[in-house]
Specification:
This protein is mainly β. It contains no helices and 23 strands.
Length: about 190
C-alpha cells in the first residue's frame, strides 16, 4: 500500500520517522479506524483490525488476525503473533514479545525499564507466550516472561516470571496452579 493510502478518515499509514524509512506493509482485509497512525518499517499480516486512535510505532512485526483496540499504543521493535486480541487503552512498550492466541484485557501496561532514568542498561519488554490471557489493568515489569497458556488476573502486577499453565494474581502477583477448567487455548 502506498505511503499516502487512507483506509478510513484521518488515518496515517506510513509516518516517516527517519529519512530512509520504508512504507509499512499491511496484508489483505485490513480495517483501520479513524485517527490511527502506523509508522514506517512496520509489517502487518492479513485480517488486521484497529479501534480508533491506535498508534503503532516503527519496526513492529504483527501477524494475521490481530485486533488492537481503541487508543492502544504499540511502541517500536515489538513482535506480535497471530490470532491476538489487544483490547482498548493497552500500552505495549518497545521490545515486547506477544506470541499467538494471546488475549490482553483493557488498560494493561507493559514496562521495559527497571531503573527509569537512573542507570544505563538494556531495555527488555515482557514476553507473553502462546495462549496467555491477561485481565484488565494488569501491569508487567521489565523482562518478565509469562509461560504458555497462563492467566494473569485483573489488576495483577507481574514482577517475576510466571510458569506455563499458571495463574498470576494480586500485587505483587502470586503464582497459583491454573484450574483444570481453564486449561484450554484461547478461542480468538
Amino acid at each position: 500500500m502506498s505511503r499516502n493510502s487512507i483506509i478510513h478518515e484521518n488515518v496515517i499509514i506510513g509516518l516517516k520517522y527517519k529519512r530512509d524509512s520504508k512504507s509499512p506493509v499491511i496484508g489483505e482485509n485490513a480495517f483501520i479506524r479513524s485517527n490511527t497512525v502506523i509508522y514506517d518499517d512496520v509489517i502487518i499480516g492479513d485480517d488486521f483490525k484497529t479501534g480508533h486512535g491506535v498508534i503503532i510505532k516503527e519496526k513492529n512485526r504483527i501477524g494475521d488476525n490481530v485486533l488492537i483496540g481503541t487508543r492502544s499504543i504499540v511502541e517500536g521493535n515489538c513482535n506480535i503473533g497471530s490470532n491476538v486480541s489487544i483490547q482498548s487503552n493497552v500500552y505495549i512498550t518497545s521490545k515486547s514479545v506477544i506470541e499467538d492466541y494471546v488475549f490482553i484485557g483493557p488498560c494493561a501496561c507493559f514496562t521495559n525499564d527497571n531503573y527509569p532514568i537512573r542507570i544505563d542498561h538494556e531495555f527488555k519488554g515482557p514476553i507473553l507466550r502462546k495462549g496467555v490471557s491477561v485481565g484488565a489493568n494488569s501491569t508487567f515489569l521489565s523482562d518478565v516472561e509469562v509461560g504458555e497458556e497462563s492467566m494473569v488476573a485483573a489488576g495483577a502486577v507481574v514482577d517475576h516470571d510466571v510458569p506455563p499453565f499458571s495463574l498470576a494474581i494480586g500485587c505483587p502477583a502470586r503464582i497459583k496452579p491454573l484450574p483444570n477448567e481453564l486449561k484450554t487455548l484461547n478461542k480468538i
